[in-house]
Write a structure and sequence with these properties.
This protein has 350 residues and is of the alpha/beta class. It has one domain (30-343): Rossmann fold. The chain is 20% helix and 23% strand. It has six helices and 16 strands. The protein has helices at residues 3-14, 165-178, 195-204, 265-278, 316-326, 334-343; strands at residues 37-39, 49-55, 61-67, 78-84, 118-122, 125-128, 137-140, 154-156, 159-161, 183-192, 212-216, 232-234, 243-245, 252-258, 283-288, 294-295. The strands form four sheets. It has a nine-stranded mixed sheet, with helices on both faces. Strands 1-6-7 form a three-stranded antiparallel sheet, with no helix packed on it. A two-stranded antiparallel sheet has the order 8-9. Helix 1 packs antiparallel against helix 5. The radius of gyration is 19 Å and the shape is globular. The relative contact order is 0.15.
Length: 350
Amino acid sequence: MNRAVCLAMIAFFFSCGSVTMDPPTACGPFGAPSAAVLSEVVPSCGDGKLLGPWKDADKIDRYACLYEPKVLRSNSKLPMVVYLHPSLFSAGWITQTNILDLQNSTSLSDDPKNVGYIVLAPEGRKTTHYYPFPDKKGVGWDNWYRQMNPAGDVRIGNTIWRENADAATIDHFIATEVATGKVDTARIYVSGWSNGAAMGILYAVNRPNIAAAAVYSAPNPFGAFDDPCPQQPVAGTPANIKQIQIFNPAARTMHIHNACDVGGICPNGELMASELNAAGVVVDDVILDNHHQQVHACTDSCGTDPEAPVKSTATTTGSLIGLGNHMRWPKEWTPAMLDFFRQHPLKSAP
């Protein structure tokens, strides 16, 4: 994370009691309205291949980075990991993890000889967010507008509710790589970090072609910080606009997060796990201490409110420690995330 952003985030968490909230936003059956789009983003893919442009429903050019393993066996299909970047950083931020480092030496299938996996890193857009300063706008994912029906646009009465543009973009780039014939479609997985983790969870529990998700430090995509329209996920028809239907409760999920995380993400993550469990989603909830050792409870000094309000209950010291933890990918745990994927292929045909 660059120095300017780090200092700005520290300034926020030390002065969170004086934050001014935006005016309430009209809520609908899919949460908040679609995010206001500021601009496209073209990622720097490093050693990967740039895919795109492809225009989304807002006529914005969309891109993705593709990383294939060094050896592709001609008669073998490979698992694919879809990685979603944090807000304020683009797809190339995957280099701050070790997902690519393990790409050529790890098998995500039951055949240990079938080593390697494809990595697809779609790029978000610059939009408005419902996160605290300095993350109120910038590159990221819109997990506040939750029209995630895999069938596409939805009509309710006389209103057509368009599919979430970010979800449609992820759909497109997954389909593009699947069309090459290189992908084991029973082993398409989702990972992500922070805002990308939130979008990863939201996407996985709504796409029947996704076998599992393993993410790091996700704010609850159904309600966190200054989200004006929190909703409870349900597997069936929603009773009212305070509920939102999910379409793939069979997706296995792993959420790795810190006992001391930024803005109260730990208790917020516990709330997310309980809400998803109630909707039938099995969540492996893994809490880490400051040294990335597993523990079984959140640290109270880093926030206790499961809603993770903008005016955090964290102490000054807890805020600083939580920010530092949030900025580090838990590289020691990436093998466990990959093994979680290996253990959870798609149980039925997409």
